[in-house]
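2024-03-11 09:14:02 DEBUG pipeline.ingest accepted 1 chain
2024-03-11 09:14:02 DEBUG pipeline.ingest length=316
2024-03-11 09:14:03 DEBUG pipeline.predict start
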Amino acid sequence: MASGQMSSNPAIIFIHHHLFGRSNRLPAYLVNAIESARVFNPDSQILLLTSLKTDLDWLGVERVDLATMGTDRLKKFHEAYRHISTYKPEYERFCFERWFYIEAVWEKLGLAGAMAMDSDTMFFGSAQKIFDELRPQTMLVDEACPSSTVLGAPPVAFNDFVVQKFCDPEFVRARQHDLKQAIDRGEGFGFNDMYFLDLIQKEGTGVQSYPTELKCGRLDGNINVPGEFVPSWRWRNGRWPVKRMYWQIEAGCLVPYLRRRRSATMIRVLVMHFQSGAKRLMRRFNPLAGRSPASNRWHAWFYNYVVFKPRTGQYR
């Protein structure tokens, strides 16, 4: 689909701030994530909100310059915001800012629906099928995790809630007290959009949680927590294992599954969040140009037994 061409399918939105990179180029993992979204959503409008110059015409991506997305509502947020965290102000603030940017681009382009993706989250399925099953009217998240957010409407209610809370002196003082206690204990204290996504579901309206397993597959919010699923090897410096992704060839593409430990049931993965250091596992699992059947078979073996290596003694 040509850049700027509208689609009846929900838009797919990625957002990247240059402050979080080591250069003025997009990180490879983000390009891999965008390519995977395009492979599985060939007719969807894909938007990249960033201040960096990009050359992703080959993926049919429409770049939106963050510098053009400033609004009065964003300005109101900046006036209300208080940094209450042990983490970098730029990071914590941007976790909120992105929703104002998405609200602005939604209004500018007249979107009918969208999925907002973290830059380290990969698509392995159809956004339209997710929408058909969830039928979102507002903002749907994986509990309080916004790694793949389903938007049936712009996040106006959430943004209003954030500003309202930061304008509440009693609320701010309470969170500052929580920060001081965490520092006294020698602990980190984060205070970003995840806190508010959880809070608004308890106190307000406009945000709900979606079921992570749908009829068409699973939207997984963290590869680093195996939980009920079979883990892969301890992939780096003795860290906790990640979920083992089992790769199969379907319709010329490599598609991942998870396996439950007890029942051995295989669950199709639609979306996977490669959080934190797991970004190193992100590959060009499915190049846009495709592969030969022989190449697909080799890559399926490589991903199954090298990248997502079975743990010692693990059944295969």
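2024-03-11 09:14:41 DEBUG pipeline.report Residues 103 and 154 are 5 Å apart (CA to CA).
2024-03-11 09:14:41 DEBUG pipeline.predict end
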